[in-house]
Design brief:
Helix content: 40-55%
Number of helices: 8
Shape: globular
CATH architecture of the largest domain: Up-down Bundle
CATH class of the largest domain: Mainly Alpha
Strand order of the largest sheet: 2-1-3-4
Largest sheet: 4 strands, mixed
Length: 216
């Protein structure tokens, strides 16, 4: 098996890193420096023409977008490991949450991240494609992003009502979303109104693979 993982610290590649750790899937790791422009170099653009991390190359095939990577790794490695549903309605539920996390939750989080000073925790890195010049940032954008995130967190809180994890048992859906919600929590977003989310994050952090990543 040939699997290569392209990543950058403090980026959405943390999601794929957590998924690979939970699966225990061996891979070659290639670290890139976003601020130095590594993700815009020709060699990497051949792998991901979007110039973003994460990306993986499995058996010679490049796969990008964190949600696609999670679902692919789940299908290939996660079913036998009982970390991803087989082909049944539960698979659709898993895909629903993973896609929502990227299309809706991460979109609002990305707007907030881009509106923060570059030195702030959770902010986009300089030279990132999402970086916004300081003179184009505004308090209004921050307020709107936080309001949109509150709507998303309310949806997630409702999805966790009466459950320990999103699909009842722990799965890569939780691995994927906890990385995003953990990032959002670093940006001064109040999680207190969402007790189900807080309890779920704590349970996710107790997974050995996640706890090890958080400790490193």
């Amino acid at each position: 098996m040939s699997l290569t993982f392209y990543y950058a610290p403090m980026s959405t590649s943390n999601i794929t890193e957590a998924v690979l750790a939970e699966l225990g899937t061996p891979c070659e790791r290639v670290q890139l420096d976003i601020s130095a422009g590594d993700t815009r170099k020709p060699d990497f653009l051949k792998i991901n023409p979007n110039g973003r991390v994460p990306a993986i190359v499995h058996e010679g095939t490049p796969i990008w977008e964190s949600s696609a990577i999670t679902m692919y790794l789940g299908e290939v490695f996660g079913v036998d490991a009982q970390l991803y549903p087989a082909l049944e309605p539960k698979r659709g539920e898993a895909m629903k949450w993973i896609a929502w996390s990227t299309v809706t939750l991460a979109e609002a989080g990305g707007r907030l991240s881009a509106s923060l000073p570059t030195s702030s925790e959770g902010a986009v890195q300089s030279n990132s494609l999402d970086w916004v010049p300081p003179d184009q940032r505004s308090a209004i954008a921050v307020k709107k992003a936080k309001a949109d995130l509150a709507v998303c967190l309310r949806i997630l809180d409702g999805g966790l009502e009466g459950k320990s994890f999103l699909l009842d048992d722990y799965s890569l859906v939780d691995t994927h979303l906890q990385a995003l919600v953990g990032w959002i929590g670093t940006m001064d977003v109040d999680l207190i109104p969402f007790p189900n989310v807080i309890g779920w994050l704590q349970r996710c952090s107790e997974r050995p693979a996640i706890a090890k990543l958080m400790a490193d």
